[in-house]
What we know:
Strands 2-1-5-3-4 form a five-stranded mixed β-sheet, covered by helices on one side. The termini are far apart. The chain has five helices and five strands; from the N terminus they run H-H-E-E-H-H-E-E-H-E. It has helices at 2-27, 34-44, 95-104, 109-113, 137-140; strands at 71-77, 83-89, 116-122, 125-129, 146-151. The chain folds into two domains: 2-44, no CATH class; 50-151, Phosphatidylinositol 3-kinase Catalytic Subunit, Chain A, domain 1 (Ubiquitin-like (UB roll), Roll), CATH 3.10.20. The protein is elongated and about 90 Å long. By secondary structure, it is of the alpha+beta class. This is Plant UBX domain-containing protein 12. Residues 32-61 are annotated as: Disordered. InterPro entries: Ubiquitin-like_domsf, UBX_dom, UBX_domain-protein. Keywords: Ubl conjugation pathway.
Amino acid sequence: MLECQSMMEKLSPFVDVASLEIESLRRIKRPKRFSEEESEETENTTNSSNAVFGFPNLPEEPNRDMDQSVLCRICVRLPDGRRIQRSFLKSESVQLLWSFCYSQIGDESSERKRRFKLIQGFPGDYKNLYFGSNTTFEQSGLANSLVSVTWL
């Protein structure tokens, strides 16, 4: 019996530390579930904001009277079947294309929350476009092309 008692005395400092750690963990706020975060997010955001997905602000469309060597025209096919066009400067970031597509997606809140991807199609193949690429329209080869928006 003495062995058990001495063993308990040796382990007691560790048990005390463990109980303190458990108490401190109980005091920490529990992370919110996804559905709770989603409901708060929908209350705090508006449908016209690009900030929901972190897209950059879309500047005004360049004037068509500008030199055609610095402009490119992009045609976008949306998931609802509409086709829209917009001019960009060839030196602008491709990330603006995501802002433009997001601004044209339907006004229903369910569509505004959905994630989408952009695909550039050409005969016999297609290319997925990635938001993280910091290239210009000229560097990416998107100048004067057709891009499709599809839901993820």
